[in-house]
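WARN  no MSA supplied for this record, continuing single-sequence
INFO  ligand: FE2/S2 (inorganic) cluster
INFO  echoing inputs
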Amino acid sequence: MDRDKDVFDDLEGMVVEEAKQKYSATVIDHFLNPRNTGIPESFDCYTYMSGICGDTIGIYVGFDNGRIARTGFVTNGCGPTVACSSAITCMVEGATLEEAMSITGKQLIEYLGGLPIENTHCADLAVNTLRGALAKMT
Ligand code: FES
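INFO  complex generated
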């Protein structure tokens, strides 16, 4: 049993080391420790969207007094998609509807400390999903 755990820890360490060559520390942190996962107990709007690669994100948003107070996300996507979903839910904490709507993929990528070009569509998917959810409030 302990040997299986050691092998798993070694493999996990190798994967993380490989990821560090490609992704920023912020991306890896949001992937390994995603914030606001799952569906919040209460929310005012949500939507699901699929990207060009077929990955899907669902984002849930709840407001208190005109500001975003609760968020949650689910995804079947890749590591960068998890990181983008997690990061965008953090970016909108306390934001008004208009402020959250105005967040761009470029801003999300900057927040994450950059993304490889092949993963910029993951950021676009997260932004578009957030906007799709918020559009239901207008
Ligand atoms: S959303 Fe397509 S690879 Fe991440």
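The chain has a mean pLDDT of 94.
INFO  checksum written, moving to next record
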